[in-house]
Design brief:
Distance between the termini: 40 Å
Strand content: 25-35%
CATH architecture of the largest domain: 2-Layer Sandwich
Radius of gyration: 19 Å
CATH topology of the largest domain: Alpha-Beta Plaits
Shape: globular
Length: 260
Amino acid sequence: MQRFAIGIEYDGTAYSGWQVQAEQATVQLKIEQALSVVANGPIRTITAGRTDSGVHAVQQVVHFDTEVSRPDHNWVLGANTNLPADINLLWVKPVSDDFNARFSAVRRRYRYLILNRRSRSALHKDRMWWVFRPLDVARMQAAAELLLGHHDFSAFRAKHCQAHSPMKTIERLTVTQQDDCIAVDVEAPSFLHHMVRNLVGVLVPIGEGKYPVEWAAEVLASRDRGQGGVTSPPQGLYFMNVEYPPEFDLPTVSAFPVLW
């Protein structure tokens, strides 16, 4: 058996998330079907991180095992030939048996995009969260800094989250603006279900001036999801990248994706 790691990009608009579900179109289902055609037999994949319905990926990483021998470029070209236009393999690389797309990851990065202007967008309706009230990015950044570090993030956790512990460590949380586009970038070793969307759901009303900056810390301390803001829409969320130990030497994609 040979283990392969692959990098994938996808537009999640048309899919019910990553994970295979009965009678639902999912990214994992499409990927496994395409790889199975190339392998001429069933292929099962393990992902670095599941994404919800409507969420996109700039570089998702998965691995699979197979006894079939194919040149690396044949996996990419063959799979892409059998994939819809909104899912694409970026690269494939043979890896050692101790590589695991999920458990070998040391850091994951997400970006959430907000369109902040009075008029909606015909082009970005499935790519960004349209917020028409003016947002104060400085206030949002000040609130974001209160959430850095190792904490109990129960207040930012989906009701049906299956993680064993709510304890997570946010290593980076930044809010930047370019013209009428705002990006919230989050890096952590791992995340709870809906954690990033719930973080944004707290930062936005602070940016609107509905709550003081300190409210972010109050929500965190409450450990109560009911004290937090709304869960922001999925279409603004992007799984940007996942980092692995250098010995695996996995390829990288452009450092300048998704607007800037």
